Amino acid sequence: MSGMKQKVYVIDGARTPFLKAKGKPGPFSGGDLAVACSRPLVARQKFAPTAFDEVIVGAAMPSADEANIGRVVALRVGCGDKVPAWTVMRNCASGMQALDSACANILAGRSHLVLAGGTDAMSHAPLLFGPAMVNWLADWYAAKSFGQRAATAAKFRLAYLAPVIAILKGLTDPIVKLSMGQTAEIVAKRFGIDRQMMDAFAAESHQRALAGRAAGHFTEIEPIIDAKGNVYKDDDGVRTDSTPERLAKLKPVFDRTYGNVTAGNSSQVTDGAAMLVLASEEAVDKLGVKPLGAIIDSQWSALDPAEMGLGPVHAITPMLLRHGMGLNDLDTLEINEAFAGQALGCLAAWESEAYCKEKLGLDGALGKMDRSKFNVDGGAIAIGHPIGASGARVVLHALKTLERTGGKRAAASLCIGGGQGGAMLLERA
What we know:
By secondary structure, the protein is of the alpha+beta class. It has 15 helices and 14 strands. Helix 1 packs across helix 2 (about 70-75) and helix 3 (about 95-105) crosses helix 15 (about 385-405).
């Protein structure tokens, strides 16, 4: 596959703090979150929100009262009635898909200025009735007489009220019948990644996130305020006490007998949003703005859903090769940490001569990634993984890292439930 023929510029971006789900709906809907980071982002630009050609929002689980959440966000941000808006969904990479869709329209000349990103309030995922309760309710509402209703009532069973947890359904692959955590166990076993390695990686994710926060590396975060006046300034899932020793005490979740994937070495269920302003070269010149950076290529790839965590390997590799680059030609690499075993599995796959030959068609191993360039400020294990937003977050933070360090090129990538990988190649303006 050939790459993009031109650059698409990222003028600016912002995100909310990522807020860990705590067993009940959080204070913000998906729309609230996207609006909360979009308003200050748009307000600091040299143009009015009505200047956008379109708004594109990625969301994996928007609530029922925010159908086509992209349009809801556009109107609430102040883009006006005449700016079209739409919503995209590619599971964990929905936010990146929104950016890629914006790139496609900009490169085609259909748009010059686009607000794009992603959002999800995972804590708002609904509890559903199962088929037995739905069928019983259908019979109840269809009953015409007292006798029919009495007969239907007699068929009711308390078991019908057992809820179906939508988020667990959504995080289970319908083809291979495996949860995302089970696929992480498969990847870890393929490359000999043990519990100690996973917990050490998870602890390091928290440590890097804390160090990044202390050093002021998360300048893209916009504080948000809930209806009660509570202020949220930082990602609240980052822990100071996540050490390998403490993490080792947690029990496996997805394979309770032989597994190593725990809640501590997995990404967090989280609410959050990230939005970016994308522009054509013509728009950049017309507006007289200095971009944050540019998207110079993107790649979507697919693989066995049972090993979906290796999606970044299959997306990043061909993208780098067509630019004549290796892993360490990148100044920074952001891969969404769905699971510690999955992130470590991606690094191991690139080092494996057998995997690179068999699965990627290479002559040998691609190489070893310098860990000092990899998820330099931690990742989703510490920060959280609001499914619709993470693709936009990794792109934005990679560009911010280039800006801060003076680096030239970066890549951002995610594994995608269903057996896919998405990646973008970025450069500093």
